[in-house]
């Protein structure tokens, strides 16, 4: 019987701003992550300029939808200011994967 290789994380690198003005375009770009069947998914924010509440909602939706499928979701490249801005809302767990 052939051994099944462990799946590597599905990764997405977002660029530009993750704000109310670009959220639809960024959501469309993130859709392939939702087709992940197993393993893990990762979003890299190191090339993102600004992140507002709309961007946070996008990350929360990805986190919710992927966790519902049993897939680990990780955000990397988050700026320290975002971690500080969203920590009082209880969202610090989203940015635990790394910093820019």
What is the H/E order? EHEHEH
Give the name of the CATH superfamily of the domain at 13-25 and 41-95: STAS domain
CATH architecture of the domain at 13-25 and 41-95: 2-Layer Sandwich
Kindly estimate the percentage of residues that lie in beta strands according to DSSP.
Answer: 25-35%
Compute the CA-based radius of gyration: 14 Å
Distance between the termini: 43 Å
Name the helicity range.
25-40%
Q: What would you call the shape?
A: globular
Largest sheet: 3 strands, parallel
Q: Name the CATH class of the domain at 13-25 and 41-95.
A: Alpha Beta
Secondary structure blueprint with pairings:
Blueprint: E1 10-18, H1 23-30, E2 40-51, H2 53-68, E3 72-76, H3 80-86
Parallel strand pairs: 1-2, 2-3
Helix pairs in contact: 1-2
Descriptive overview:
With 100 residues, the protein is of the alpha/beta class. The chain has a domain at 13-25 and 41-95: 2-Layer Sandwich (Transcription Regulator spoIIAA), CATH 3.30.750. The chain contains three helices and three strands; from the N terminus they run βαβαβα. A three-stranded parallel sheet has the order 1-2-3, with helices on one face. Helix 1 (23-30) runs parallel beside helix 2. The longest helix is centred in the middle third of the chain and has 16 residues, at 53-68. The N and C termini lie far apart (43 Å).
Index terms:
alpha/beta, three-stranded parallel sheet, 31% helix, globular, disordered N terminus, 100 residues, single chain
């Amino acid at each position: 019987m052939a051994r099944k290789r462990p799946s590597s994380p599905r990764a997405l690198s977002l660029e530009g701003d993750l704000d109310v003005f670009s959220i639809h375009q960024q959501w469309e770009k993130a859709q392939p992550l939702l087709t992940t069947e197993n393993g893990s998914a990762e979003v890299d924010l190191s090339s993102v300029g600004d992140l507002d509440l709309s961007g946070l909602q996008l990350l929360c939706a990805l986190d919710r939808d992927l966790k519902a499928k049993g897939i680990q979701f990780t955000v990397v490249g988050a700026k320290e200011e975002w971690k500080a801005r969203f920590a009082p809302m209880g969202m610090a767990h989203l940015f635990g994967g790394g910093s820019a």
